Amino acid sequence: MISKVPPDKGSDTPHTETTLTEALQLDQLSAPPPRKGGFGMRLRNYFLTGLVIAAPISITVYLTWAFVSWVDTWIKPLIPRQYNPDNYLPFTIPGVGLVLAIIFITLLGALTANLFGRTVLRFGENMLDQMPLVRSLYKALKQIFETVLSQSQGSFEKVGLVEFPRRGSWVIVFISTATRGEVLHRVGEGEPMWSLFMPTVPNPTSGFLMFVPQKDVVILDMSVEEAAKLAISAGLVIPPFKDSQEAKAYVEEQVAQKKRTEPV
Question: Strand (E) positions, the chain?
Fold first, then answer.
C-alpha cells in the first residue's frame, strides 16, 4: 500500500512516496527503548525463587513433625512411667512413640506368622463376626489394607497412553498386567490385552479399570513415579525426556568429558 503525497504548488520540492513499511521503521526508530525490569521486579523474582525452594522443604518438615507428634500423643501415655524417658530427662525426646509403635507392629506380624498367632487371630475374628456393625467395619478395613499392603499384589509395570474419551484425545494410564482369565476369553478375540488403571486428576488414588488391546496402547519411557507426579500436578510437572539422538549425543559428551578429566 502506497500513500502519495502531492507536491505543494509553487514549490520546487520534488514529489515523494512513503511506503507503510518505511513509516513503521521510522516509528520504531523514534520510539524510546524498552525499559528493563527495575529493582522491584528483581526482588519479586528473588522472592518467588526462594518460595519455590523453601515451601516444599517447610511443608515436608511440618507434616513429618506433625505426624511424629500425633503418634507420640497416642503411644507415650501407654508407656510405664519408669520406662518413659521424658520422666527422668530434662528434655523431651520426639519420636519415641513412633519407634515403639513400629516395634510393636513388627512383633505382632511375627507372632501371627506362626500357628499359635494364626489361631489367636482366628479366635478374635470369630468374636468380631458376632458383632453386626463391628463385623462389617472390620472386614471392610481389612480388605482395604490387604489390597494396598499385600506383598502378593505387584506394582504397576509400565506407563502408557490410550485414546480417551474420543479418538485423538490421550490420557495417562498405568499398566497393571496382561489381561487373563474370563475377561480375555470374552472380549480378547484372540488378541493380547492390557489391564490398565486410568487415574483421576489430581487425586490418582481413584480412577477406572480398563481392559484394552495392547496394539491400542502407546508405551512411554517415563517411570511410574514420574507419571504419578505428572497426574498429581495436572500436567505442570513434566518429566525429563531425551529422544534417541539427544540421548546418544549426551552419552558421547559424558564420555568425552570423562576422558578430558582423566589424568594422562
Answer: 2-5, 16-19, 158-163, 170-178, 193-199, 207-213, 218-219
